[in-house]
Write a structure and sequence with these properties.
The protein is about 40% helix and about 15% strand. It has helices spanning about 5-10, 25-35, 55-60, 80-90, 110-115, 140-155, 170-175, 185-195, 220-235, 240-245, 250-260, 275-280, and strands at about 15-20, 40-50, 70, 95, 125-135, 165-170, 200-210. The chain has a single domain, classed as Alpha-Beta Complex (Spore Coat Polysaccharide Biosynthesis Protein SpsA, Chain A), CATH 3.90.550.10. The chain is of the alpha/beta class and about 290 residues long. The chain has twelve helices and seven strands. The protein has a seven-stranded mixed sheet, with helices on both faces. The longest helix has 18 residues, at about 140-155.
């Protein structure tokens, strides 16, 4: 759906999608087709991390859409570097990371960015396992639980899927995280820095379709070890070393979030229209 069509339907395109891609020729086209029909999508940045297959050629076939930009790294730098490259090209107010495989479904964007649009959260994670979920390895699932538990212990929080590939947030916040990770350690780095700044992570259930190693899964047990190291480093590094001088932006945003409603607003058509006399008798009645 084009931006003009989305706005005419009452949906404001406001989402910037970063797609890091390395040797994803087989699935990238299918992902892009699903991304580009989402009414909320304003901008898409595909970052080809020096693929050796036809990934870049597939990406270029979609640049006829004015929302799509394709960037190519001269050498393989890793997922974290690709995310930072994509972020530098974005102008959309909200950003989401979309893997180039078919594990995460763009059809769920609206569910994920809803709390941000409503002002109830600045960071939203899509949690695997609450709804439809397929996994290919017990050890992969166990490793994810271990690093998530470590996150909760280190930062005194309670999230259920630190390593999820579906992370959405306000783009101006993501730029202030001062990310430096180059490869898969970018996932714990994003989470650790968000928590160090005092933000609460809102989680929503998503569907997840895990790939096997033969289908192109790239994470290994060594990435789990690196995740632990990243979490410990971010937890105990002085805040000024992580972020520089204090930023009034975070004070203002955290104050706004603290005063925001905890639940979604009631749809206008369901509000009860009370006369002044009824309102005096039923001051708390707002819905049918």
């Amino acid at each position: 759906m084009a931006a003009a069509d989305a706005e005419s339907a009452g949906i404001k395109p406001e989402l910037g999608v970063i797609i890091p891609a390395f040797n994803e020729e087989r699935t990238l086209g299918q992902v892009l087709q699903r991304v580009l029909v989402q009414p909320c999508v304003q901008q898409v940045v595909i970052v080809d991390d020096a693929s050796t297959d036809g990934t870049f050629q597939v990406a270029q076939t979609y640049t006829g859409d004015p929302r799509v930009e394709c960037v190519r790294h001269a050498s393989n730098q890793g997922k974290g570097a690709a995310i930072r490259t994509g972020l530098s090209r974005l102008s959309a107010p909200v950003v989401i990371i979309q893997d180039a495989d078919l594990e995460y479904d763009p059809m769920e964007y609206e569910r994920i960015i809803g709390p941000i649009r409503e002002g109830r959260a600045d960071v939203v994670y899509g949690v695997r396992g609450f709804a439809s979920h397929t996994a290919y390895s017990y050890w992969f699932v166990l490793g994810n639980r271990l690093v998530t538990t470590a996150t909760n212990v280190l930062f005194n929080c309670y999230i259920q899927d630190m390593e999820t590939g579906f992370k959405a947030m306000r783009a101006d916040l993501m730029r202030r995280l001062k990310l430096s990770g180059r490869r898969f350690e970018i996932e714990p780095e994003i989470t650790g820095r968000v928590l160090r700044l005092g933000y609460r992570i809102h989680e929503v259930p998503i569907t997840y379709y895990a790939r096997s190693r033969e289908e192109g899964k790239k994470l290994t047990w060594l990435d789990g070890v690196k995740a632990f190291g990243s979490l410990i480093r971010i937890r105990f590094t002085p805040r000024r070393w992580l972020f520089g001088k204090d930023d009034d932006y975070h004070v203002a945003r955290l104050a706004e979030l603290a005063s925001a409603p905890r639940i979604p607003p009631v749809p206008a058509e369901r509000l009860v229209r009370l006369t002044p006399a009824e309102a005096a008798q039923e001051p708390n009645q707002v819905t049918r």
